[in-house]
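#onboarding

Welcome to the new folks! Below is a worked example of what a typical request in this channel looks like: someone posts a single protein sequence, and someone else replies with the predicted structure as tokens. Don't worry about understanding the tokens yet, we'll cover that in week two.

Example request:
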Amino acid sequence: MKKVFISLSLIAICLVYTGCYEVSTVVRDTQVKTVDMNAPSYVKPLVAELLVKKGIDGESSIHDVWNFNEDDVLSLNSDVEKLKNRAAFLSAQKHLCDVIVSPMFDVYVANGKATVTISGYPAVYVNFRTMEDKDTTWLQVTSGFRPAPKTKTEK
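Example response:
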């Protein structure tokens, strides 16, 4: 009887401890801006201007350092691009901006931890409007696109 009682006690203890084991997985991914369109819907192209913000000190540029612990790095799969995206997202939140113009990143990963330094210019979108014909010429020039020359029959 004593052996049965000890065996049942050991089994009960094992069940209690295995039932209390907790598996925790945290996944985090961020992106600063997205445009989502479902086919077959069409949206007229929009044009907006970027206004670079000035800080309290009158400076336009930012310089942020973000430290990520082991859990953060693991949740981002140690992917440098995801670490940069997360840093850009955190800086955009901190400086209340829509985009960081000309961002420069310095990423250091060691011992499961990461430090991402981001420098750039915080900006917000202003003056949204529907694209007009005059904007297409500007876009062609700035993107390097050159329309094919007109043929003799098109002239």
